[in-house]
Amino acid sequence: MQHEFPIRVYYEDTDMAGIVYYANYLKFIERARSDWVRQKGVDQNAMKDKEGIVFAVRKVEADYLAPAKFDDELVVETRAIQITGARLVMEQIVKRDKDLLFQALVTIVCVGENGQAARLPANLRLVLH
């Protein structure tokens, strides 16, 4: 199931050329992933407190296809493409209307309090499908 998250480009998101600074796309997709998880009913604070684990980005493969500019209304589309016992692979794209501006494959893992990788709990795997 695809999740959609609207973003408006503010002046602070742009660089000297008046386009969205490349690193801000990572912020946009992070917000969208957090919202997607929240809408799936996952309380990340409770997950940390009860399970002792948090989500961490392990890998991002990003393609910047076209620029976004100040005051653009964008949509971040997020969908899970692979969920295993140890990782979650997400496809995320940023669009302005029908124009594809940015796309990324993001690999998420769980990390315990000791900083070591941990398995995704079975209940989370079921919820996130």
Describe the structure.
The chain is α+β, with helices and mostly antiparallel strands and 129 residues long. 26% of the residues lie in helices and 43% in strands. It has helices at residues 22-39, 44-51, 122-128, and strands at residues 3-8, 53-64, 73-83, 87-96, 99-112, 117-118. The protein is elongated and about 45 Å long. The chain starts with a strand and ends with a helix. The model has no long low-confidence stretch (mean pLDDT 94).
Helix content: 25-40%
Rg to the nearest angstrom? 16 Å
Supply the number of helical segments: 3
Summed over residues and divided by their number, the pLDDT gives a mean of 94
The unreliable regions are none
How much strand content do the residues show? 35-45%
Q: Major beta sheet, specifics? A: 6 strands, antiparallel
- H/E order of the elements? EHHEEEEEH
Terminal-residue CA separation: 8 Å
| Oligomerization status of the protein chains | single chain
Number of strands: 6
The coarse silhouette is elongated
Structural class by SSE content: alpha+beta
Key terms:
elongated; 129 residues; alpha+beta; 26% helix; six-stranded antiparallel beta sheet; 6 strands
What is the gist of this entry?
The protein has 129 residues and is an alpha+beta fold. Helices cover 26% and strands 43% of the residues.
Layout of strands and helices, then pairs:
Layout: E1 3-8, H1 22-39, H2 44-51, E2 53-64, E3 73-83, E4 87-96, E5 99-112, E6 117-118, H3 122-128
